[in-house]
């Protein structure tokens, strides 16, 4: 809970399931391409969830972040 950078950061084709990230100075959850973020929650980060090309965000919530809640680049599914 809370640090000076992103809370959870993953590589290509990762799966992040049932996680929470709060109080981070950077993104709550950030992934590389092809990842899945499922049933997870971000609260009070700079930006909530950031996923790259071809990723999926499903069943997630993003609350009280100072920036965007969920950000997806090309070919993503939310």
Key features of this structure:
single chain, 78 residues, mainly beta, four-stranded parallel beta sheet, three-stranded parallel beta sheet, 10 strands, 0% helix, 41% strand, globular
Can you describe this structure?
This protein is globular. The chain has 78 residues and is an all-beta fold. The strands form three sheets. The chain has a four-stranded parallel sheet with strand order 1-4-7-10, with no helix packed on it. Strands 2-5-8 form a three-stranded parallel sheet, with no helix packed on it. Strands 3-6-9 form a three-stranded parallel sheet, with no helix packed on it. Helices cover 0% and strands 41% of the residues. The protein contains no helices and ten strands. The model has no long low-confidence stretch (mean pLDDT 95).
């Amino acid at each position: 809970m809370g640090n000076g950078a992103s809370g959870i950061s993953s590589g290509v084709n990762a799966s992040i399931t049932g996680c929470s990230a709060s109080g981070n100075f950077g993104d709550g959850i950030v992934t590389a391409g092809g990842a899945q973020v499922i049933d997870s929650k971000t609260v009070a980060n700079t930006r909530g969830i950031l996923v790259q090309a071809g990723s999926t965000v499903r069943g997630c919530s993003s609350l009280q972040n100072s920036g965007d809640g969920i950000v997806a680049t090309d070919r993503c599914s939310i």
